[in-house]
Q: What sequence folds into this?
């Protein structure tokens, strides 16, 4: 199991949160997505970690951008 946290910019309401959660959740390896509207922090749990490229693409699909990427 791998957990990664990054920041997403532009989310303003729970609808934004749900969109980001849905797109990231569609990535095949992802088992859980947590999004904090207040901080913009997104925590993704997956089997072996996801690439920044995959996260970027999913977040952009939802209409937002990854502001800060860090892998833990
Ligand atoms: Cu919104």
A:
């Amino acid at each position: 199991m791998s957990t990664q946290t990054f920041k997403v910019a532009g989310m303003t309401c729970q609808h934004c949160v749900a969109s980001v959660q849905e797109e990231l959740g569609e990535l095949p390896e992802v088992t859980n997505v947590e999004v904090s509207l207040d901080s913009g922090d997104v925590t993704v749990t997956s089997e072996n970690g996801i690439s920044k490229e995959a996260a970027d693409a999913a977040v952009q699909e939802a209409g937002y951008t990854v502001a800060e990427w860090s892998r833990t």
In short: The pocket of copper (II) ion is lined by residues 12-13, 15-16 (CB under 6 Å). The chain has two helices and four strands.
